[in-house]
Amino acid sequence: MVSICHQRGVPVVPQGGNTGLVGGSIPHHGEVVLSLRRLDRLGAVDQRGREVTVGAGVTLAALREHARQAGLTYGVDLASRDSATVGGTIATNAGGMNVVVNGDTRRQVLGLEVVMADGSLANHLGNVVKESMGPDSLRLMVGSEGSLGVITAARLRLLSAQSGEQKVTLIAVEQLADGLQYLTPGVSAVEFFSQACLDLVIEHRALSSPFPTAAPFYVLIESAALPAVPDTAMAVVDRKLWSYRETITETINQQGVPTKIDVAIPLGRLDEFVTRVERLGLEDDVYLYGHLAEGNFHVNVVGGSDAVEVEDRVLGVVIELGGAIASEHGIGVAKAVWWRRSTDPAVLAINRRIKHTFDPGGILNPSVFWGG
């Protein structure tokens, strides 16, 4: 199909689980949508090499279960695991809840199979752990959002399953900086959410409050051993505490159509970002949560304010604080203007040349990065 579109100059939008937030996997100007969900083959797990080759349409949930049955695990996990696909997470270089210990998706990719813009198939799945055979050009597909090629399969690194049951601790904190002390060896996840998120989940999910009094933020830690929590801090231990974090997104969506902004803030300026967002005086409900270990904020705003204006004001703060306008969900169309505005011109020039080299006709996902 890609070959035919190339011959006729018809633009193509590759689509996986369609769980992104920046419009990168949907048609904007009559493009052909190429769904990859049927590429759901799960290859045999190589237990000695701790790797597996799977189709781009395999969901994270299916991949993780496939690895679990072999006594291993996959390093990336998201709340949207039942819908998010391998191809989509590679295309956006997703991080997820275990990035503190396993790294982002880029670190899990050992090889790729890609359909190029002219319809030809480039296969670099291989089966060796390390090689030195010139530039690894297919690695550029990671994070490219389908603008350089269509990922059809991937060889992925698997990890040893954690021995023993992981402890889950929820700690109330006055400032997010207080949670950074828990980034210690043995920690596999460090998440955070605001009191507003907790109140919403408690109200709409019929959950009990984990603490007798409120706090500005809560840090959720998954670890092999219990963290060293100060005697003065409020903390509770229970694996069921994950439900408070993992149901936030779905619960917010039920309140209306939220403006969702995914950003990264330098770890030394997390609380400054919170204060700056508060000073914006948004006349809406603001929910803050994310992955503390990488300074990732999911800023969700629900109300009547203009979505574009809200996003512009928040992203303006991000840039002023030296942050990144995209942390997990990519640039897509929604952040294309901000990407061009906040990226070094020399880097933009390099990216333009790469795009032209891989896709001279400009048919692959033409609205992301450059077209937005």
Gross CATH architecture of the largest domain: 2-Layer Sandwich
The termini sit apart by 25 Å
CATH topology type of the largest domain: Alpha-Beta Plaits
Query: Please, what is the average pLDDT?
Result: 91
Biggest sheet layout: 7 strands, antiparallel
Q: Estimate the helix proportion, in percent.
A: 25-40%
Structural class: alpha+beta
Concise structural overview:
This protein has helices spanning 2-8, 60-69, 86-92, 99-102, 195-205, 242-246, 248-253, 270-279, 307-320, 336-342, 345-358, and strands spanning 12-15, 32-35, 51-55, 72-74, 109-115, 121-124, 150-160, 167-173, 187-194, 217-223, 235-237, 259-264, 285-291, 296-302. With 372 residues, the protein is α+β, with helices and mostly antiparallel strands.
Structure commentary:
It is a single chain. This protein is α+β, with helices and mostly antiparallel strands. It folds into 2 domains: 2-130 and 138-160, Uridine Diphospho-n-acetylenolpyruvylglucosamine Reductase, domain 3 (2-Layer Sandwich), CATH 3.30.465; 167-320, Alpha-Beta Plaits. It has 11 helices and 14 strands. The chain has helices at residues 2-8, 60-69, 86-92, 99-102, 195-205, 242-246, 248-253, 270-279, 307-320, 336-342, 345-358; strands at residues 12-15, 32-35, 51-55, 72-74, 109-115, 121-124, 150-160, 167-173, 187-194, 217-223, 235-237, 259-264, 285-291, 296-302. It has a 7-stranded antiparallel sheet. A hairpin with a 5-residue loop joins strand 5 and strand 6 (121-124). The longest helix is centred in the last third of the chain and has 14 residues, at 307-320.
